[in-house]
């Protein structure tokens, strides 16, 4: 029994908790991607760099606040700086839309033209972010780092294995739940949210009904930019901030959106957790867990790791491939064409 | 200006720009730009075959270029003693396992009932993967320990020029796999899938030490051109140096670079000729017809997805060839140096700026954008230095600005792409319609 | 002057004109029907009146006011409602949300209008929480008409409302349209089912190649042997 509990604690500590946190971060990113997709009908390659930009602003303000000695301990100061990052990212996204995407929207350009334009936007965001904060890793977590510490947990339970729960992890899940609840409430209960869904469903009829496309598009960018910043800041608190890593997050985020059914907000959230849990469970080395569970003498020699952590992108890709092969519309039947 | 005159004028301007570097700075620098321009032009040609002929957006150019680079290592590097004896058997078994699994899946799929086809495929693929790992892991470890500091298999020790077509084949194979899955769905999906495959290819190259030494890099890849040190002592080089009033060291460097450039130019010329012929052939016309009106082409009974697959594979192969050439030029394979901005998205800027669907445009784009990429660095330094001078020297802002100079490059490239797409979407040399 | 009066409409999509001096007029509370062979420009005339097609010549007036230069959205604000032939509902949204979106431009309380729509189409009330895309063809048309009614239009324009529905459903829809007209709303519709449509029409327009061929009351057109022979199949 104790062996089983130890295995469970080990598994929770190294798989369940990290995957839940990571899943929440991906879900927020994918929700933004899917909103852009439903309303503007293209996959935004600049989303990772938009995340990086919003996070960069938040970090800058966090540093400023820390220097002034302003904080909200035990919560991280970044939470206080978050609104600035969101507003900045929103402003950048709205400017980008006005200067870049609006033109193609009015000409009803092919989606792939939007994708290429978003590549140009990605370059520019990339340069702006790095201009301010450089290319290196940045850590900006402060406040109480842990909710549960490993030694406390051991003392509490008397088990050999410990369990740690970091503030940032709890925060990520809570903030994600609030943000997702807000987005769903907004889309399903408010007039503006419903008009976004109407516009995405049937653009011509939305125009006939007097829904202003400009307004819908602006609201969409505001939501996407805020969600991107939120995802970026939470990811940065949990791990660390690095502009290139944020660009690379594009792949799991896209995979999440497509797995869930692109254009389906519920799908984006579920997809985020599917991708995160697949990634973590496949790249975790099960040696420790199996040693507890298997009878003595049968403990595995190797790490029992299905895939090296360096190959975590392969997991997103394989999930993507399976979805494309098996059910291109995704779990919640999104739009494909 | 008529089409041909415009093309000629633009190419003349490009030549003048490179000559200017030679006259004002140094001929070795000018030739270095020329060399990479030629390789860039080939990559751009490959991407243009996919985008210009068929409207396919390949966001994984980097991966295909890197696969070409692997070909350089596997073909030209000498075999490492003891590697084959240590891990050869297991490695062979691992490859056999993969092939057997693939064959089994291909054999069983049509014979299985619909309901369990996909789950069975996935289970088989997973079991195949486990079996492959069962052989690959010991092979990798054995090769690592048997070869000491080398730590990898090495290659076949063949002439490096053979690696160029082989690089194309490697890239073509990967492209076939990706295309099979992602083509036929919406255009964004191909972009996302190719973005993914490029990351995976790079992850493999960085981590599979037995194959490519991973991040330890493979250096000293044999050259197709005599070494500069050897050239310096050749009587004809010394003679040439005397005639131009230059020293043999300088002359040897120029000769060596020219030699590379000529080799690259030959490949570019062949590929350009083939691409032009293909574009003007009935096949090329059909491809563009499909691109411009997919529904009509499908209604006429054309299997669009299959034709797209062919174009995608061909374009990727061209990128793979260029990737092998790049490694040849560098003389080393450094997996960590591949980054998507430089190797995927920069190529896209080349295609869009040069002229989508026009091979001469894509080649010009390759030259021009590479040139701009190179000169953007000094311009960025100059700009930031001047901006920094406005602030207090030696202060935080000053040092920050100087550190930020490299980011001028992506900014410039992004702006060039956006401006071109908006104001000259057909590029410098637009596609000729209705040929 | 008629409530809606479109005069000498000439225009088309590209270089070639589809309409050649076509004229349509509808009085208050009247049902007017446009019929004619395929390619006669029926839907085009409708789109021109609604502002989805730029006219080269001619003029459209609503309640005496010239509206030729207005966009469709502005015409909706002036009291025109339009039900397109296809894609005329928000398929992924519930029936109630469809009606709500119909009332998007209204700043006042529209719950009364919604109740009126529900009393006109009781089935919609039953299915108010269901996605419009899951409804049958006839019910979907009701949603489409209901959506257009939410702005309380003075003129309701219907582009082939009975296309693809069964004869029973068609009769039902026509009954509803008569009911709507009785509340004082003018109706202008294009119909393929010419005979049945002219039956309920106060006025009928027969268009041929973008020109008015016959204009009369529905009854008179149905009685005209020439019209019967050429356009109504005997």
Automatic annotation (TrEMBL), chain A:
TM regions (residue ranges): 20-40, 52-73, 79-100, 112-133, 169-187, 216-237, 306-326
Membrane topology listed for this record: Multi-pass membrane protein
One of the Pfam families matching this protein, by short name: BPD_transp_2
Keyword annotations: Amino-acid transport, Cell inner membrane, Cell membrane, Membrane, Transmembrane, Transmembrane helix, Transport
Cleavable signal peptide: none
GO cellular component, one term: plasma membrane
InterPro entries hit by this protein: ABC_transp_permease, BCAA_transport_permease
Keyword ATP-binding: no
Localization annotation: Cell membrane
Family: Belongs to the binding-protein-dependent transport system permease family. LivHM subfamily.
Name recorded for this polypeptide: Branched-chain amino acid ABC transporter permease
Annotated organism of origin: Amaricoccus solimangrovi
From TrEMBL, chain B:
Keywords tagged on the record: Cell membrane, Membrane, Transmembrane, Transmembrane helix
Membrane topology term: Multi-pass membrane protein
MF terms (GO), sorted A to Z: branched-chain amino acid transmembrane transporter activity
TM ranges: 7-24, 30-49, 56-77, 83-108, 115-132, 152-177, 189-205, 258-279, 309-329, 341-361, 368-391, 411-429
One Pfam family hit: BPD_transp_2
Protein name: Branched-chain amino acid ABC transporter permease
Keyword Transmembrane in annotation: yes
Assigned GO CC terms: plasma membrane
Source species, domain of life: Bacteria
Upper lineage: Bacteria, Pseudomonadati, Pseudomonadota, Alphaproteobacteria, Rhodobacterales
Subcellular localization, as worded in the UniProt entry: Cell membrane
PANTHER family the UniProt entry points to: HIGH-AFFINITY BRANCHED-CHAIN AMINO ACID TRANSPORT PROTEIN BRAE, HIGH-AFFINITY BRANCHED-CHAIN AMINO ACID TRANSPORT SYSTEM PERMEASE
TrEMBL record, chain C:
GO biological process, any: L-amino acid transport
Pfam family, one: ABC_tran
Keyword Isomerase: no
UniProt xrefs under PROSITE patterns: ABC_TRANSPORTER_2
InterPro entries: AAA+_ATPase, ABC_transporter-like_ATP-bd, BCAA_Transport_ATP-bd_LivF, P-loop_NTPase
Transmembrane portions of the chain: none
Keywords assigned: Amino-acid transport, ATP-binding, Nucleotide-binding, Transport
MF terms (GO), sorted A to Z: ATP binding; ATP hydrolysis activity; branched-chain amino acid transmembrane transporter activity
Domain ABC transporter: 4-234
Family in the record: Belongs to the ABC transporter superfamily.
Protein name: ABC transporter ATP-binding protein
UniProt source species: Amaricoccus solimangrovi
Organism classification: Bacteria, Pseudomonadati, Pseudomonadota, Alphaproteobacteria, Rhodobacterales
């Amino acid at each position: 029994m104790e062996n089983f509990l130890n295995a469970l604690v080990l598994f929770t500590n190294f798989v369940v908790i990290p995957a839940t946190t990571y899943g929440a971060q991906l879900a927020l990113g994918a929700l933004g991607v899917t909103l852009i997709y439903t309303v503007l009908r293209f996959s935004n390659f600049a989303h990772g760099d938009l995340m990086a930009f919003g996070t960069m602003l938040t970090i800058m303000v966090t540093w400023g606040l820390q220097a002034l000695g302003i904080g909200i301990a035990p919560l991280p100061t970044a939470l206080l700086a978050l609104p600035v990052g969101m507003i900045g990212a929103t402003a950048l996204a709205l400017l980008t839309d006005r200067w870049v995407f609006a033109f193609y929207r009015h000409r009803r350009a092919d989606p792939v033209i939007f994708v290429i334009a978003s590549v140009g936007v990605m370059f520019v965001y990339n340069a702006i972010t790095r201009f301010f904060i450089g290319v290196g890793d940045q850590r900006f977590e402060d406040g109480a780092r842990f909710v549960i510490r490993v030694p406390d947990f051991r003392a509490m339970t008397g088990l050999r294995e410990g369990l740690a729960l970091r503030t940032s992890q709890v925060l990520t899940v809570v903030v994600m739940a609030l943000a997702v609840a807000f987005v769903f409430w907004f889309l399903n209960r408010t007039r503006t949210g419903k008009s976004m869904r109407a516009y995405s469903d049937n653009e011509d009829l939305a125009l006939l009904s007097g829904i202003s496309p400009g307004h819908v598009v602006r609201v969409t960018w505001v939501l996407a930019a805020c969600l991107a910043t939120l995802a970026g800041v939470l990811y940065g608190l949990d791990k660390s901030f690095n502009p290139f890593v944020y660009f690379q997050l594009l792949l799991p985020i896209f995979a999440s959106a497509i797995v869930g059914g692109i254009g389906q907000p519920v799908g984006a959230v579920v997809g985020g957790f599917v991708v995160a849990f697949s990634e973590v469970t496949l790249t975790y080395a099960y040696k420790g867990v199996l040693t507890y569970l298997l009878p003595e003498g049968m403990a595995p020699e190797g790490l029992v790791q299905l895939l090296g952590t360096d190959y975590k992108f392969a997991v997103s890709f394989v999930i993507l491939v399976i979805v494309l092969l098996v059910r291109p519309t995704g779990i919640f039947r999104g739009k494909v064409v | 200006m008529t089409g041909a005159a415009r093309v000629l004028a633009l190419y003349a301007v490009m030549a003048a720009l490179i000559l200017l570097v030679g006259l004002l700075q140094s001929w070795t620098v000018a030739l270095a730009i020329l060399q990479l321009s030629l390789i860039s032009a080939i990559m751009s040609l490959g991407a243009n075959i996919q985008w210009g002929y068929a409207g396919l957006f390949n966001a994984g150019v980097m991966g295909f270029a890197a696969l070409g680079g692997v070909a350089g290592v596997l073909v030209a590097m000498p075999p490492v003693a003891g590697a084959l004896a240590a891990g050869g058997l297991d490695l062979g078994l691992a490859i056999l396992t993969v092939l057997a699994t693939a064959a089994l899946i291909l054999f069983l799929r049509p014979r299985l009932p619909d309901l369990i086809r996909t789950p069975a495929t996935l289970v088989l693929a997973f079991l195949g993967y486990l079996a492959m790992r069962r052989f690959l892991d010991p092979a990798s470890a054995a090769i690592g320990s048997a070869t000491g500091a080398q730590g990898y298999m090495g290659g076949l020790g063949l002439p490096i020029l053979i690696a160029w077509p082989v690089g194309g084949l490697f890239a073509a194979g990967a492209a076939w796999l990706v295309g099979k899955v992602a083509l036929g769905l919406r255009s964004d999906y191909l972009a996302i899938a190719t973005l993914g495959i490029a990351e995976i290819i790079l992850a493999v190259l960085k981590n599979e030490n037995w194959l490519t030494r991973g991040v330890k890099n493979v250096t000293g890849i044999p050259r197709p051109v005599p070494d500069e040190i050897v050239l310096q002592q050749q009587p004809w080089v010394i003679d040439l140096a005397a005639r131009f009033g230059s020293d043999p060291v300088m002359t040897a460097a120029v000769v060596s670079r020219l030699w590379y450039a000529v080799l690259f130019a030959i490949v570019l010329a062949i590929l350009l000729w083939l691409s032009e012929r293909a574009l003007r052939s009935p096949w090329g016309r059909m491809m563009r017809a499909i691109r411009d009106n997919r529904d009509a082409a499908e209604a006429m009974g054309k299997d669009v997805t299959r034709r797209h697959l062919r174009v995608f594979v061909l374009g990727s192969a061209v990128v793979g060839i260029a990737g092998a050439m790049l490694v040849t030029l560098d003389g080393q394979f450094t997996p960590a140096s591949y980054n998507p901005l430089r190797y995927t998205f920069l190529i896209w800027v080349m295609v869009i700026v040069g002229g989508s669907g026009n091979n001469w445009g894509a080649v010009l784009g390759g030259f021009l954008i590479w040139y701009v990429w190179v000169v953007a660095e000094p311009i960025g330094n100059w700009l930031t230095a001047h901006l920094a001078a406005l602030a207090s020297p030696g202060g935080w802002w000053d040092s920050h600005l100087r550190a930020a100079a490299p980011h001028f490059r992506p900014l410039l490239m992004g702006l060039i792409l956006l401006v071109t797409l908006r104001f000259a979407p057909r590029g410098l040399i637009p596609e000729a319609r209705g040929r | 002057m008629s409530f809606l009066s479109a005069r000498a409409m000439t225009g088309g999509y590209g270089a070639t004109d589809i309409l050649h001096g076509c004229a349509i007029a509808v009085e208050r509370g009247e049902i007017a029907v446009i019929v004619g062979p395929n390619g006669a420009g029926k839907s085009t005339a409708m789109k021109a009146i609604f502002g989805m097609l730029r006219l080269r010549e001619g003029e459209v007036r609503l309640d005496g006011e010239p509206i030729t230069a207005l966009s469709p959205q502005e015409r909706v604000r002036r009291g025109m409602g339009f039900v397109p032939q296809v894609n005329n509902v928000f398929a992924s949204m519930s029936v109630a949300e469809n009606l709500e979106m119909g009332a998007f431009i209204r700043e006042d309380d529209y719950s009364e209008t919604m109740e009126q729509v529900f009393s006109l189409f009781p089935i919609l009330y039953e299915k108010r929480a269901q996605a419009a895309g899951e409804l049958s063809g006839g019910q979907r048309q009701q949603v489409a008409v209901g959506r257009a009614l939410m702005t309380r239009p003075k003129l309701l324009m219907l582009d082939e409302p009975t296309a693809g529905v069964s004869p029973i459903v068609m009769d039902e829809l026509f009954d509803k349209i008569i009911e709507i007209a009785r509340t004082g709303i003018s109706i202008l519709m294009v119909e393929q089912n010419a005979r049945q449509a002219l039956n309920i029409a106060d006025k009928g327009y027969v268009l041929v190649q973008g020109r008015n061929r016959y204009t009369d009351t529905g009854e008179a057109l149905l009685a005209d042997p020439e019209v019967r022979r050429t356009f109504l199949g005997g």
